Amino acid sequence: MKFGQQLRESLFPDWKFYYVDYSGLKRFLYERTDKGYTADDESEFVKLLDSELEKVNNFQQTKSSEMKRRIEYCEKQVDLITQNPAPEDAKREQLDIIEREIDAVIGEVYELAKFTRLNFTAFMKI
């Protein structure tokens, strides 16, 4: 299987616009090499590559910060719940809600790790 196809099949659909435009970058190279690759082509390609790298990096930093904030919020909520003199059943319900949020964050951490690996591989293959 070619990497471009593997990338399309492996990406997290909600984040598809934030992955490196592997196909677009490859298309640029193929079109230019057929006509004779020039220094201007190289300069334009480097700009495109930098732009894609910045897009991927900004998204990754944003998602990491968002996950950190969500985890910190969950920690604060757990502290408040455990200090609350409410009945244990009420506390359990609140803790279940927080547990679901933590599970969601864990799922996103996994997807972000996969996002990072796929983009790293894409940049290496270009």
Explain this structure to me?
- Helices cover 83% and strands 0% of the residues.
- The chain has four helices and no strands.
- It has helices at 3-10, 22-35, 39-83, 88-125.
- Helix 2 packs antiparallel against helix 3 (39-83) and helix 3 packs antiparallel against helix 4 (88-125).
- The radius of gyration is 21 Å and the shape is elongated.
- It starts with a helix and ends with a helix.
- The relative contact order is 0.15.
- The model has no long low-confidence stretch (mean pLDDT 92).
Percent of residues in helices comes to over 70%
pLDDT averaged residue by residue:
92
* Element string (H = helix, E = strand): HHHH
The profile of the biggest β sheet is:
none
Shape: elongated
Low-confidence stretches: none
What gap, in angstroms, lies between the N and C termini? 16 Å
Question: Into which percentage range does the β-strand content fall?
Answer: under 5%
Class based on secondary structure composition and strand pairing: mainly alpha
Enumerate how many helices there are, as a single number. Answer: 4
What is the alpha-carbon Rg in Å? Answer: 21 Å
- State the total count of DSSP E strands: 0
